[in-house]
Amino acid sequence: MIKKAILPVAGLGTRFLPASKSIPKEMVTVVDRPAIEYVVREAVAAGIEQIILVTHSSKASIENYFDRNFELEMTLQQKQKWDLLKEISEILPPHVSVVSVRQPQPLGLGHAVLCAKSVVGDEAFAVLLPDVLVKDDAAQNDLAQMIQRFDRTQAAQIMVEAVPDHLVDQYGIVDVAATPDEGQSTVMQGIVEKPAVGTAPSNLSVVGRYVLPAQIMQLLEKTPRGAGNEIQLTDGIAMLQQTDTVEVYRMKGQTFDCGSKLGYLKAVLHYGVEHPKLGDAFKAFIKELEL
Which one, of 27, 31, 33, 29, lies nearest residue 58 by Cα? Predict the structure, then answer.
């Protein structure tokens, strides 16, 4: 069973400027909690017990958020604000740990994953890109199903979703013999980065969730710099595919690209209307705007 997940958070978040000039984009709040907490919750719900942050010196607030704040907890306790105390003390379950490693240079996603090699060791692991929120109301989320599929087959899993044909040039698109049903996996034949409309092998785009075997680390060490003069994770996966089966898992949930401003606003809207305390009032406000 996979228990470790890598979250690359060292990026500068240029798509979210000017806010990301001083605030890590992962810490921008979606309703009442930072975006990265939703990603960590997704991982924990899938059985992950160790979160590995691949971070940068400017991102200390992310590490602090998942640490205990004794002074704040004592203040809330003295003021008998028990609900707030419960919220901040239960951000992480007791059995889940967070560790951090630094990415000394911005050399790509593949390099960020490789930075966690010493922590991962010889274990398979998950990778979750924190820019993407996956909203999944099922009892067993998509990541959990990917992990179960990996446990059965030992085949690397890449999460994908169907996108409109006229938007395929904005994504990494996978090549498959036949499109799987939602919640199912199939063998990946290849991957094309941002193909021209009309030339894409499918309409299945890579989402930003991976379940990978330990040997991908050795392959990433050998992976030459590719697009953008960076070490690309997709290049390492392509090397893995030469000797091992790689599968794509078609997700059932819904994604929000919180690395973009419009995607962030969509996430706030969707999570806001379902918030247990604020949802009804927020929906009423939206109806007022429609008038």
Answer: 27
In whole angstroms, give the CA distance from residue 49 to residue 123: 13
pTM (two decimals):
0.93
* CB-based contacts of 272, cutoff 8 Å, min separation 6: 31, 278, 279, 282
Separation of alpha carbons 27 and 73, rounded Å: 20
pLDDT tens track for 231-252: 889 889 989 999 999 999 999 9
pLDDT of residue 245: 94
∠ CA(167), CA(7), CA(214), 5° rounding? 100
Rounded distance between C-alpha atoms, residue 241 and residue 8, angstroms: 23
Kind of pairing between the strands at 4-8 and 125-128: parallel
The helix or strand, by DSSP H or E, that contains position 105, with its residue range, turns out to be: none
β-pair partners for 176:
188
User: For residues 154 and 188, what is the distance between their CA atoms, to the nearest angstrom?
Assistant: 14
Catalogue all structural domains in the chain, each as residue range(s) with its CATH number: 4-155+207-290 (3.90.550.10)
Residue ranges in the chain whose pLDDT is less than 70: 291
pLDDT at 44: 96
Distance in angstroms (rounded) separating the CA atoms of residues 48 and 38: 14
Report the distance separating Cα 54 and Cα 10, nearest Å.
Answer: 6
Q: How far apart are CA 264 and CA 131, in angstroms?
A: 9
